[in-house]
Write a structure and sequence with these properties.
single chain; 160 residues; alpha/beta; Collagenase (Catalytic Domain); four-stranded mixed β-sheet; 5 helices
Length: 160
C-alpha cells in the first residue's frame, strides 16, 4: 500500500497563560499525529493556551455561553475532503488545574485530553450522541496512550 504524504500543516502554539508549565513539543506532536492520521496534508492549526477569563470571552462571543469551558475548536477553512484544514483550538489551563485532581491525574495530562479532544472535533469526530461519543472517547484514549498517558479508571462520560 502506498504511503500517503506526511502532513505539512503549520502548527502554531501560543501560550498566553501563566498557570501551568506546558511541554509545547507534546502538543505539536499529538496534533500532527491526528492530522496526519486523518489525511490532513495542508493548512494551519493554531493552539492557544488560555486562562478562564479568555476562554469565557470566546465562549460568550462565539458560542453565546457565558462561562469558561475546557476547550473550544474553531474550524476556519474546512476542506477536509481535499486534505486541507485551517483551524484554532483554545484550551484552558486553569480548568485543567482545577479538574485534574477530580480525575486523579496531572494537570498536564488533563490539558492534553483537551487538546486531543479539540483536534478530534476538527477532523470530524462528534460527541453529541452516545454511539458516536463512545467512538470519540476511544480515539482519545488511543492518542493519549501515544503520549504515554493512561486515562484514569473513571468514566469519560463524567468529562464534558
Amino acid at each position: 500500500m502506498p504511503r500517503r504524504k506526511k502532513s505539512s500543516v503549520l502548527i502554531e502554539i501560543l501560550d498566553e497563560q501563566e498557570y501551568l508549565a506546558i511541554n509545547l513539543d507534546r502538543i505539536k506532536f499529538i496534533c500532527e499525529k491526528i492530522l496526519d492520521d486523518f489525511a490532513i496534508q495542508s493548512g494551519k492549526l493554531g493552539v492557544i493556551l488560555v486562562d478562564n477569563d479568555t476562554i469565557q470571552q470566546y465562549n460568550r462571543d462565539f458560542l453565546q455561553h457565558d462561562y469558561p469551558t475546557d476547550v473550544i475548536s474553531f474550524p476556519i477553512v474546512d476542506r477536509r475532503h481535499e486534505g486541507h484544514l485551517e483551524a484554532e483550538i483554545l484550551a484552558c489551563t486553569q480548568i485543567a488545574l482545577d479538574r485534574a485532581g477530580e480525575f486523579g491525574w496531572s494537570p498536564e495530562d488533563e490539558l492534553m485530553l483537551y487538546i486531543v479532544h479539540g483536534t478530534l472535533h476538527l477532523v470530524g469526530f462528534d460527541d453529541t450522541a452516545s454511539e458516536i461519543k463512545t467512538e470519540m472517547q476511544q480515539k482519545e484514549r488511543e492518542y493519549l496512550a501515544q503520549l504515554g498517558i493512561t486515562v484514569p479508571k473513571w468514566n469519560l462520560d463524567d468529562w464534558e
